[in-house]
Amino acid sequence: MTSNSLSSMIRAGALLAGVALLGACNKPAAPTASTTAAPDKPAAAPVATVDGTPISQEIYDFYTKSVAGKSAGELTAEQKSQVLDELINTQLIANQAVKDGIEKEPDTASRLAVARLRLLADGESQKYLKGKEPTEQELRVEYEAALTSMDKTEYHARHILVATKELADQLTKQIKAGAKFEALAKTNSMDGSKERGGDLGWFSPARMVKPFADAVKALKKGEMTASPVQTQFGWHIIKLEETREVTPPPFEQVKEQLGSRVMQKKLQTYVEELKKTAKIEKKT
Fold first, then answer.
1. What whole-number distance in Å separates Cα of residue 217 and Cα of residue 243?
2. Residue 89: is it exposed, middle or buried by C-beta count within 10 angstroms (0-12/13-18/19+)?
3. Rounded Cα gap, residues 206 and 213, in angstroms
4. Can you name the residues that pair with 154 across neighbouring β-strands?
5. 10 Å Cβ neighbour count for 8?
6. What SS3 class is residue 70?
7. What's the CA gap between 190 and 48, in Å, rounded?
8. What separation in angstroms does the CA of 4 have from each of 1, 120, 249?
């Protein structure tokens, strides 16, 4: 990793770490290892102080991992110094933000509250899911369920998207009278596919909004919708070019994605259990 690439990663992650620092400023320091361990263990010295605010080794390690994607031990001496300088700069700005009352401004206070909320929820989610990694059987069950629900056919279609039904009706009549679909798409469609004559390429119905997907599945090869189809995007004239059967990916190829889905379902089940004993009142 070059110094320049490390700088880019640090800048990208500085905001995240800055939120944590801003929330921690002017608050009592978190207990060090020595406050809970045996008395003969000395307190870990801070890696730096900024106007009296200590930056602990724990914060430095977390910051390094967050913005560089590596532990401090994996960085060169120059990179470690660079990370520390960036952390000091972030702490310096965060200290000034507290002095200026930034954390009390409504927008900043809300962002801090949401960040805290997400971090706590993420921490609880990880705690609940620890040791609940999916078994081979669970993965197989999820795979079979996915095969059952997946679209077995892909479609290659073109469309013309316009704002009004009146224009869509006019264009439909022109096409039925012999006008070229592709030419009318290039001159009238609002969609990005207009430059390709409305060509959408190959897609599964699941990728499309339901009215569009239903209309495509009802067409035969070479057919065009008899009347325009309305979606939240406007009015569509759709022409089906071809269809092809889909070969499902083998189990081993999608095993990681299946694992994520199983874990997500377990977490959702946990949330539903929490709801059963929670008092939830919606005001809006």
1. 10
2. middle
3. 7
4. 244
5. 12
6. coil
7. 57
8. 8, 33, 40
pTM, two decimals, is 0.62
Whole-number Cα distances in Å, 136 to 132, 250, 263: 12, 15, 13
CATH architecture, domain defined by 151-245: Roll (3.10)
Whole-number Å distance between alpha carbons of 108 and 98 = 11
Q: Enumerate the domain spans of the chain.
A: 3-100, 151-245
Backbone phi, then psi, for 80, in 5-degree steps? Answer: -60, -45
Higher-scoring residue by pLDDT: 3, 124: 124
Strand spans (E) along 12-115? 48-50, 53-55
- According to the model, what pLDDT value does residue 41 have? 59
Show the CA angle centred on residue 78, arms to residues 77 and 81, nearest 5°: 85
Q: What is the mean pLDDT of residues 134-149?
A: 95
Q: Which of 205, 197, 166 has its CA nearest to residue 180?
A: 197
Contact (Cβ atoms closer than 8 angstroms) between residue 99 and residue 230: no
CA dist 190 and 198 (Å) reads 10
